[in-house]
Structure formats: structure tokens, C-alpha cells
Amino acid sequence: MSEHTYIRVLWLHGAPSDPVDLWSELDRNRFETRKLEIFRDGTIGYACATETAGGSRLGTVPVPSLAEIAADKQFQLVVISRSAFEHRWNTRNSNASSSR
Questions:
Q1: pLDDT along the chain (100 residues), means of 10
Q2: pTM of the full predicted structure?
Q3: Angle at CA 33, nearest 5°, toward 28 and 34?
């Protein structure tokens, strides 16, 4: 079993102040270790143990199961590869926001 799970969740809503594209690296207990929050205008917030930007913070409780996320109609769940997450993580500063 892999040490981490990588997910991408598209959040279907109309609130301009909330992210619409969420990328998360989860540990074996389903806690976020890194996350990206992409907003409708293209700005990116992110968080990990050592840095944050754009008001993003790591969650303090485990992320729900994949089945629970997929069952909620406001979310579209995509299980992604580590390499896809790493690529997106490594390009996070191109649109990061420090003022959100």
C-alpha cells in the first residue's frame, strides 16, 4: 500500500471566494500533508507543514473516504497519480496568491 493517496476534487459552486479545484496529498490516516486550492480566477493557495500561501491551511481532521466525497453531488472526485500531483505542486508559485 502506498504511503500517500493523491486526490483532486472539483467543487461545483458559485461562490467566488471559495476554491473550485482542490488537490490533496493524504497520508495513510487521510490527513492532508500538502494541498493546493485553485480559485475561479486562476489564483492558487497552498499549504504544507512548512509553508502556506493564499490563506490555505492543512485540514485538522481526516479527509472523508473517496466514496463519501464521490457521493456528494457538489464534488467531482478524481484519484490522481503522485507524478500528476508533484507536477502541479512544483508549478504552484506561478499563480500563487499571498493576499487571499
A1: 88 94 97 97 95 96 96 95 97 64
A2: 0.89
A3: 135
